[in-house]
Amino acid sequence: MTHRASSRSKIRRRLGTVWLTVLLSVAANTRAQTIEDWIGGSCAHCAERMHSQTGAHILERGEEALIGRAWLTQHAQKSIDVQYFIWSSDNIGTLAAEQLLRAAERGVSVRVIVDDLLIDADDQTLLLLSAHENVSIRIYNPNVTVGTSFFDRIVNAVTQFRSLNQRMHDKTAIFDGVAGITGGRNMADEYFDFDHAYNFRDRDILLLGPAVSDMQENFEEFWSSELAVPVENILGSSASTISATGAAQKAAELHAYADDPANFEIEVREAISNLSNAIPALLADMNWQDVEFISDAPGKNDGSLGLAGGGLSTRRLIDAVKNARHSVLIQSPYLVLPPGGVELFSELHSRGVRTRISTNSLASTDNIPAFSGYHRQRPRLLNAGIELFEFKPHPGIQAELIERYPTLAANNPVFAIHAKSMVIDERLVFIGTFNLDPRSANLNTEVGVFVESEKLARQLTESIERDMLAENSWHTTKEYAPDFEVSRGKRLQLGFVNLLPIEPLL
Asked: Are 141 and 300 within 8 A, CB to CB?
């Protein structure tokens, strides 16, 4: 019941490799500076303001989010701490690992926490990477994949059902304790518009200032949690077989993969010709204000209520929605309101609060079980006064997303919503990892930021409203739903899943 793209047997592409590879070569030719030095030298007022306020910049496009992460990785001088729900071994995932290893080799402390459920690196690779003296890798709630046999997996599913479904859905990256990125993107091709078959419309936010300290504090809480287990402790005897020679060989392989000039393509060479201007533009566009970082404790809740129980992030989001005065605009890939959710929006409607939600259609979704929960709930959502817009698999906006990459456009990839965002009363913005479903409400740990900014609210509203336009989404009403825009086979799958009592796990 996990939220991951259906195109897991993805085509290995060169495009993702090229982008980060070229970024490496550009960054290698720049004068080494710390992130703080660079900010001070490029934007003096930014360096001054970040002591009392947090700078925030929304990362809408996949390549922009990729550039931001890669540049910060290149310029970090002290530490890089990252948490991800999914870390794939595709091109983006491999190049990200290589970038972190390169940082470790120049003396940066690199710590990584990855949830156990969907990690697809083999045990040997994890151990070889963790063998570097500056790299530490911990696996969150290891009961499914790393060091777990098929038999143990079955036993855990029976004896630890809730634990098996309680995952770390956090997605954060912190650089020198100064800059941080959080939002919907996992570390895989499809989250950065680089997959040939299936890509997500996603959203991150880049932060500088005090909110990053709160993000760092949350990371430390997870790092010290008994649920985050060092990979060496999990794999036991296998760790003792790792030699310095083997670790060096793996590092050489990763560097060779990243530096191979055969991976360069002319379209990408042209696209990054003005790369040196990208980061200054991000900094100049920063919005400075108070930013609230919200997060759950490791484990979400004590489990005494079984598959229910809520969490800190759940309560904060409910409070924000309850206090809406005239409008709520939401974008969520999965829309299955937990108990009380429909009633909350119905009460808002009775007070004159307009609620609009952008979500996936059956045609675009990567998760039929999650869509089944929405499908069963959809009549109640409409009766509660919610305006629903279901994203098309080939929206008009895809031309803008892939205009630089004709080879990708030629494959006509499917696009789907993955962003988790909200605007309340045209002033309060939320961007994070929280899906509108029972899993995020009760089982998965989540993070996100609240920003009170009319400017960012306008920017985010324009982005979501653009996704809701007729060329990008179907407007679902009591009289019309776009379920028949898909094959009979997919509708049959939906019908079968609708029979299963799985709503608390969606």
From this structure: no
